[in-house]
Design a protein that fits this description.
Length: 270
């Protein structure tokens, strides 16, 4: 195992889970291959290959891998962290940001002799990365954790069965609240409609199933879409790519040029 102060690489088997932890510096996590879920007390961030999750300093979190996953983690300097959101967030990753992340978590960071010789270049590249993420749009791949007991019950119900297409009035009878009350709570607490919230939850489950290798038709029905075409349209509108292309990228992606580097920064407290 190799550790370094700025971050690292962690090869996760599918289903791998970290313990709960926190760091004195905020950090970015990126799935160069596979899919990551970052769980905090504020909700769950979903990190497919075209997104990066930001977790601010001192926030307790844990990671879970879906599909064989190569996680890149980068601890952001105290000087640059204020340029990123003050809460957990999922940001779009441009081609430039992706390459910067891979470089900043690659051999230059791992080898102390090389790292020392490239320190100034690394700092400049980190500035570029944070500047790029600072203008990147946030994407609806953070599932906030509701605090109201009725919303939590509804979340558990749909998490167990994302394909459940029952109307909110029927679901409300199962959790002890009217559709009107649940709609009001979702708007007041999470700032979304029931349709938006259920679509986010279904998209999360679809990402997981695709990363684990299931085909598009199976995922569509398992997550509540009536047919593959409607699923493809909804998925593409959220992700900016089709489920088929996403599935291929999640399973084949990563940085082949650095495949021999298997480094874990999990559990470190820089």
């Amino acid at each position: 195992m190799h550790l370094w102060p700025s971050g690292g690489v962690h090869e996760w088997p599918s289903g791998g889970v970290s313990g709960s932890q926190s760091h004195r510096r905020g950090h970015l996590v990126y799935a160069a291959r596979g899919l990551l879920a970052v769980h905090t007390g504020q909700g769950t961030s979903i990190v497919p290959a075209n997104r990066v999750a930001w977790t601010p300093a001192e926030i307790t979190h844990r990671h879970r891998a879906h599909g064989d996953t190569e996680m890149r983690i980068l601890f952001v300097s105290d000087a640059l962290a204020p340029l990123l959101p003050s809460r957990p967030a999922v940001l779009a990753v441009s081609a430039l940001a992706r390459e910067a992340l891979l470089t900043l978590t690659g051999p230059r960071s791992h080898d102390p002799a090389v790292r020392e010789g490239h320190r100034d270049a690394q700092e400049r590249l980190e500035h570029v990365l944070v500047d790029e993420l600072g203008v990147a749009p946030e994407r609806p791949l953070h599932l906030p954790a509701p605090s109201d007991s009725r919303l939590r019950a509804l979340a558990r119900l749909l998490d167990r069965d994302p394909g459940n297409s029952a109307p909110l009035s029927d679901l409300g009878r199962q959790v002890g609240a009217s559709a009107r009350t649940l709609s009001r709570l979702l708007s007041a607490e999470l700032g979304v409609s029931f349709y938006e919230w259920r679509t986010q939850l279904r998209t999360y489950h679809a990402l997981v199933l695709l990363a684990e290798g299931h085909d598009v038709t199976y995922v569509a029905h398992a997550c509540g879409w009536s047919n593959a075409s409607s699923f493809i349209a909804a998925f593409t509108s959220v992700m900016g790519t089709s489920p088929g292309r996403y599935r291929q990228a999640a399973r084949a992606g990563g940085s082949a040029r650095q495949k021999s580097l298997a480094v874990s920064a999990d559990g470190e407290r820089p």
